[in-house]
Each structure stands twice: as structure tokens, then as C-alpha cells.
Design brief:
By secondary structure, this protein is an all-alpha fold. The protein contains 13 helices and no strands.
């Protein structure tokens, strides 16, 4: 009997659509790879400083990068920081940024969007005008202004991005709730005396959250890219911290090699840059697959 339950059938159908999508499988494989690297980072690249494992060890203070060798399989960047160590531990930094920012943005965005859509009136007007004001300022400009105001650092970058990223979730979930609140099952719950809080938590949010979750998956990679860009500009963690954006920044003087050999120091840019690209790609591919699986227009095709 349980196998014939409508919700279970829908779940099986959704999962089959997701895993029949080859790009989705590629995304999950990439994401699984990064998860494994993040979990086993202490075994893959044992830290020399156990009190602060995110600080990349360096073999000297030479300015010129060294090519890959047996001791440094990905080579070293400026200051002789080990690229392999930085890429491995930078995976944990990327997950930390993505999961923290999206979690906070979802909490704020879904809460405000639900309140605005459910109650309407002056409450809806106030929240949506606040969202409009935040949308009027470019995302990066506002995030960078917050970081500069409160001080540089990776934690402040995460707080700044989270303080801006919630705005899109408010609009998306509000639009779904405006339709849902007029449905018969919502009106029946109100007549039965169910509290507004229970209606929002049990009935409205579960039915309106799917588009928001799709956006969240796709933006999980985007926020890491944004944080990497801000680290590249020098707003992030201190020098030597295992952060992909900062690793690219440390190699900025060697993007082009010496005359006659412009690709001599390719590894200082390509390796951490590739990690960023693949991480963002993994989340985007999964997000695209979820969008196709949950989109009513494409779902039964």
C-alpha cells in the first residue's frame, strides 16, 4: 500500500527525472568529489599547524613560484605557498561559504517572503519596498560596501553576501504564496481555527519552497564565486589562508610569464581557477536538473 501512496509516486518520478539527466549526474559526481576532498582533507594534505590547519604551509619566502615537483605536486605560488594544500583545504572553505550564506539567506528570505505574501496589505508593502531598495543597489557594490564598513576578512565577506542574497528569495516565495493563500485547503485551515504560524509552516511553505530551493542550489556556487572575487580584491582572509580566490590573487603578478615563455607559471592560476570553475559548475548543473524536475511545464514531458 505504501508503494502506491501518491507522494511516494511523485518522489520516485522526480528522482527518476533527476538521475536520468546526464548533466545532473555530472553535477552530482563533481559535488561528491568535492565533498570527499573536504571530508578527507586532513588525510589528503596533512596540516603542519594543527591549531590552524587552514593556513597554507610555505617552504621559504621566495617571490617567484616554483614548478610542480615531487615535494609540491601542484607547485608553489608567491611566498612558496603549497598550491596542492591550498586547493584541498580551500574545498572546506568553499563549502563553508556556500552553505552558511545560502542557509542565512534562505532563512531571512523565506521568512520575510512568507509573511509578506500571507498577510499582504501594509506588511507586504513595507517588506517589498525594502526589497526594492536593496535591489536598486548592485549586488557586488553593496556587499563590498558592507565588508569595507565592518572590516576585511572571510567571515565578514560571508555576512555581507548573506545580508544581500536573501532579497531574491523574498520575491520568489511571495509570488507562490499569493496564489496558495487563496486555495481551498488554506481557507479550510483558517475556518478550523488553525493558527497563522501553523498554516504558514505546515501548509504554505512546503508547497511554495521548491522554486526557492532550485535558486538556492544554483546560487550556492555563485556565492563562492563572489567570495573568491572579493578575496581576489584583497577583502578576504589573511595571506596564506586556504581560499581559492586568494590563491588566484597571490598569483596575479604571474598570470603572464616572462617574455618568451608566457605560460611558465600557468599552474599558479589554472589549478585554483579550475577548482572554482568545477565547484560552481557542479551546483549549477544540479540546480538546472532540479528546475527541470520541478517545473510544472516540463515535468510530464
Amino acid at each position: 500500500m505504501l508503494e502506491n501512496h501518491p507522494k511516494l509516486k511523485e518522489l520516485k518520478f522526480t528522482l527518476s527525472r533527476i538521475f536520468k539527466n546526464p548533466t545532473a549526474l555530472m553535477g552530482f559526481v563533481l559535488l561528491l568529489f568535492f565533498i570527499i576532498v573536504a571530508i578527507f582533507a586532513p588525510q589528503i594534505a596533512p596540516p603542519k599547524n594543527k591549531n590552524n590547519p587552514y593556513m597554507i604551509p610555505h617552504a621559504g619566502y621566495g617571490v617567484t613560484p616554483k614548478a610542480p615537483s615531487e615535494k609540491h605536486i601542484f607547485g608553489t605560488t608567491t611566498g612558496q605557498y603549497d598550491i596542492f594544500y591550498g586547493v584541498v583545504w580551500g574545498t572546506r572553505t568553499a563549502f563553508r561559504i556556500g552553505i552558511f550564506v545560502i542557509s542565512v539567506a534562505l532563512l531571512i528570505g523565506v521568512t520575510l517572503g512568507t509573511i509578506a505574501g500571507y498577510y499582504g496589505g501594509i506588511v507586504d508593502e513595507f517588506i517589498m519596498r525594502l526589497v526594492d531598495v536593496i535591489f536598486a543597489i548592485p549586488f557586488l557594490v553593496l556587499a563590498m560596501a558592507i565588508v569595507v564598513a565592518f572590516g576585511r576578512g572571510l567571515d565578514n565577506i560571508m555576512y555581507a553576501i548573506a545580508a544581500v542574497a536573501w532579497r531574491s528569495y523574498v520575491r520568489v516565495i511571495r509570488s507562490g504564496i499569493l496564489t496558495l493563500r487563496e486555495q481551498d485547503f488554506i481557507q479550510a485551515a483558517k475556518i478550523m481555527g488553525v493558527s497563522d504560524f501553523k498554516i504558514m509552516v505546515r501548509h504554505i511553505i512546503p508547497n511554495a519552497v521548491y522554486p526557492v530551493m532550485v535558486i538556492a542550489f544554483m546560487e550556492c556556487g555563485s556565492v563562492v564565486l563572489t567570495a573568491a572575487f572579493m578575496s581576489f580584491l584583497g577583502l578576504g582572509a589573511p595571506k596564506g589562508y586556504a581560499d581559492w580566490g586568494q590563491m588566484v590573487a597571490m598569483a596575479r603578478n604571474y598570470i603572464v610569464g616572462p617574455p618568451g615563455d608566457p605560460l611558465k607559471f600557468w599552474y599558479t592560476i589554472i589549478i585554483p581557477g579550475t577548482a572554482i570553475v568545477l565547484f560552481v559548475l557542479a551546483w549549477n548543473l544540479i540546480g538546472d536538473a532540479l528546475r527541470d524536475a520541478f517545473d510544472p511545464k516540463l515535468r510530464r514531458r
